[in-house]
Amino acid sequence: MEQGIDIRKLHDYRTRDILTYMEVTLAVLADYANVTKEGKLNVMGLFTHINARVIPYIHPQMLLVWEAEAGLAEWGTRKDVEIKLLDEAANQILSVRGNLEVPRGEPSRPVRINSLMGFNNVKFDAEGDYEFAILIGGETKKNVSFRVSYIPPVAKA
Predict the structure, then answer these.
(1) DSSP state letter for 18
(2) 70 with 19: CB under 8 angstroms?
(3) Looking at residue 20, what is its pLDDT?
(4) pLDDT at position 105
(5) What pLDDT, in 10s, does the model give residues 44-87?
(6) In CATH, what number is assigned to the domain containing residue 89?
(7) Cβ contact 85:62 at 8 Å
(8) Does residue 10 lie within any of the structural domains?
């Protein structure tokens, strides 16, 4: 009997090649975050919604917090990273490019890399849905969606 590929295993994360992959396993927007000297990621003030009293609105500060996981074959490599902020029509509002050095980890375990990216005074010209796209090596690895809503000021009596 001829052996074929077990289709059920193609989408099973446990059969993933632990050597040759790079994925973003966590991505959130927050008011504050840090990484301890032990490598522990602390995140505070997670949000998916920005309430604006005026439009256009300038948001004073936000952090895109993300964690990547890389297999053994990626250790010691440099990856091109791009972060794009897109509006609901997929128009690019901003783009940041850089490099990510993949450190060495423990044998037979993937390595995890934490990244904190601060964005100050980001201007939103309209209310609506927005997203940060995280690209590694030109491939979109994760999207973080959020909404900007116009909330009119409350009239004082």
Answers:
(1) S
(2) no
(3) 63
(4) 85
(5) 999 999 999 999 999 999 999 999 999 888 999 999 999 999 99
(6) 2.60.40.2550
(7) no
(8) no
Strand, helix or coil at 150? strand
What is the torsional sign of CA 82, 106, 104, 118?
Answer: positive
In a domain, 5, yes or no: no
Q: What is the reported pLDDT for 9?
A: 41
3-state secondary structure 14-66: HHCCCCCCEEEEEEEEEEEEEECCCCCEEEEEECCEEEECCCCEEEEEEEEEE
Q: Is 150 exposed, middle or buried (0-12, 13-18, 19+ CB in 10 A)?
A: middle
For residue 104 the two structure tokens come to 């060495």
* Residue 131, amino acid: E
Residue 61 lies in a domain: yes
Strands 22-35 and 78-87 turn out to be unpaired
Q: Rg of the chain's alpha carbons, rounded to an integer?
A: 19
* 25, 70 Cβ separation under 8 angstroms: no
Per the rule left: phi > 0, alpha: psi between -120 and 50, beta: everything else, 39 is left
